[in-house]
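Lecture 7 notes: from sequence to structure.

We start with a single chain of 331 residues. Read the sequence below before looking at the structure.
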Amino acid sequence: MVTEHIFKALADLTRLRIARLLSTMELAVGELAQVLGQSQPRVSRHVGILCDAGLAERRREGSWVFLRQSEAGRPIITAVQHLLAVAEAEEGEFAALCEADRHKLAAIRRAREIAAEAYFARHASEWDDLRALHSPDAEVESRLAAALADAPLGHLLDIGTGTGRMAELFAGSAERVVALDKNLEMLRVARAKLQHLPAARIELVQGDFYDLPFADASFDTVLLHQVLHFAADPGPALAEAGRVLRRGGRIAIVDFAAHQREELRDRHQHARLGFADRQMAELLRAAGFAASTPIALEGGDLTVKIWLGTRRTSPASSAASPGSGRAKETA
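Now the structure, written as tokens:
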């Protein structure tokens, strides 16, 4: 990040407005164009200048490109945002533009919420049927939070975030949360749920649990909440989780105990009918974890289990990790 490039990048009113908006939340380039009332190609040029100066970074999610404040050079980003806040307080014309931009941004947020509500409406009956088979969600969340409360969460990766509920639950106690999901529609649902959180504390990423787009030893805590039963082969998924964990980092797996509800394969695409404790202990050990005593929540036809593990070997030395040495991908 070169100071000269930063000041050149900020020497434009549109880019100042974009920088101010990005302090609030991550936005798609198309959404920025909508807020600013400019063409998408023109906004894309401004975005390119901000990214080249290290003030913002792009991330591709399917056919959409999202923009967020750069995580590199955080002190400079903080200083720039402080300067923009002062400018908004002192300059009436700039303040009016920023206020109008925020008003349009509120409309975008509402549109996201409406889309999420429509998705929930289409799938509510399926989820309600599944929830009726196990302990109440609130009880599971409470036991999970208690199980992780004995050490700082640090940087947390929520694999298979779905609606973003786990990311929302732990956003207040983790330094930073990265919420990952393969499904683009689910990511949009999660974005609607999480958009009230500070942009610097939450990031949403599209990715596969077999091939996580992060460097080795990037996180302190990894969470897989009702995700692993979708894995035809859980071993490589856990090895990837281990790869991105720092030594001594923790993994928490919330899933079903072994069961015989075959209809879940067809109705909910479950690849695995839960996990036995011995099976999970072997999977964790093979992925480089020391397993703790599992926690059982019995309260329905299906028993929910919480399995915890601690990373006992460094990712670089773990033979189970297929992606060792991979650098974080950038879109």
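The first helix runs from residue 3 to 9. Keep this in mind for problem set 3.
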